[in-house]
Design goal:
This protein has 14 helices and 12 strands. The protein is an alpha/beta fold. A 7-stranded mixed β-sheet has the order 9-8-7-6-10-11-12, with helices on both faces. A 5-stranded mixed β-sheet has the order 1-2-4-3-5. It is globular. The two termini are about 25 Å apart. The protein binds nicotinamide-adenine-dinucleotide (NAD). The site of nicotinamide-adenine-dinucleotide has 24 residues, from helix 7 and strand 7.
Length: about 425
Amino acid sequence: MVATPILPLEAPSPAHICPFDQACSYLDQAARELKLDAGIIDILSNPTKVITVSVPIRRDNGELQVLAGHRVQHSDILGPCKGGTRYHPAVTLREVSALAMLMTWKCALMGIPYGGAKGGIAIDPKRYSVTELERITRRYTSELIKDIGPSVDIPAPDMGTSAREMAWMMDTYSMNVGHAVPGVVTGKPLSIGGSLGREMATGRGVMIIVRSALADLGKSLEGIRIAIQGFGNVGGAAALLMHAAGAKIIAVSTSYGGIFAEDGLDIPALKAYADNNRRSIVGFSGAEPISNAELLTLPCDVLVPAALENQITKDNVHQIKAHIIAEAANGPVTLEASEVLEAKGVIVLPDILANAGGVVVSYLEWVQGLSYLFWDEERVNQEMEQLMVRAYHQVIAKSRERGISLRLAAYTLGVGRVAQALKDRGLYP
Ligand code: NAD
């Protein structure tokens, strides 16, 4: 049985790897493993709600512009929908739908009571002023006012958005309903109920999963050679934490280009350099320039793609030399490339496990907010680590028990839990 989405998502361009088709392929594989009924697969392959709103804004020069704002709620079977808000030129309804589905499996895999969602607007935030971004975010939020809320759908930051946008979303929602509702978003500033540890959470989760995989090989992070694509929220935090644990970060790249240093980069100094150079790392002293394509194929122990999807494909997979790939971004390795890597014995730590630290701490932020009781950073990190390590061991155990890849094991666990909940809840009416 092949997952057959019924929703009118726009067709992908033929040359492009369609993220939604890829997400459905993973669902199909897990469904076969779980021997799910065709009807259940149909329910799970279709988002519960697909929303596209018109976001008219006035640019600073007085011109009017109308943007399309998407929000896709894939599932609310396990609890309120949860997922980031992406501002990036490549955002499409198909991509948002795929990412919403991934969020459903990720939350289920981590054992947290959420369904999956995702939102996005196809803009390059670098081309908008802060005041324009605020107008975009507030109008987008007010158009979604009936569809989000602390027990309905809880947005968070993703590529191109941060705590700043979450504060605007929280304020807009609160003004519309007439009272402060911090729980409507996560990843917000500490001043309005954000959680300590949230900023570094996804990178910390990546570090914990890589460390666990190394421990299974009898190794630690000490002296391990790591290349990281992307030096933003996720890649930057993962680099800092793995460097602090003794790893050698030999290469890093951003959209401006990459750098390489055989003996390892001084990551705290690089972070300070990037912060002072509009996030570019090009020109950092003591390092050679390197292209993004070269970074991916460097000889190293661990490769961490932490930028965009579809970075390792059938075209470059045969040049990959890393022994472990930790999918910090969503979908950085295509299905085809994954199969080649697994056949070669490369350990691919799948996205729904490796980058789940962010949603786990979002969940902890939501729990703290609902209970009006805020924890210190040590407690947040401990609780998060427990959930990450538990999921890692469950994935390893499932993979060994069924003789399947780590990715299929992770999907089988996530999809299986949602399917079970669906069967237990039954169908309304
Ligand atoms: P970000 O915008 O903070 O950083 C993205 C980084 O990737 C930047 O350094 C950017 O320069 C770089 N980049 C962009 N295009 C590139 C290219 N072509 N080559 C090399 N580098 C490039 O975004 P982020 O929040 O770090 O998210 C990165 C990925 O992680 C995304 O796939 C996102 O969905 C995923 N993710 C993020 C979180 C989170 O908590 N932020 C959680 C889970 C998954």
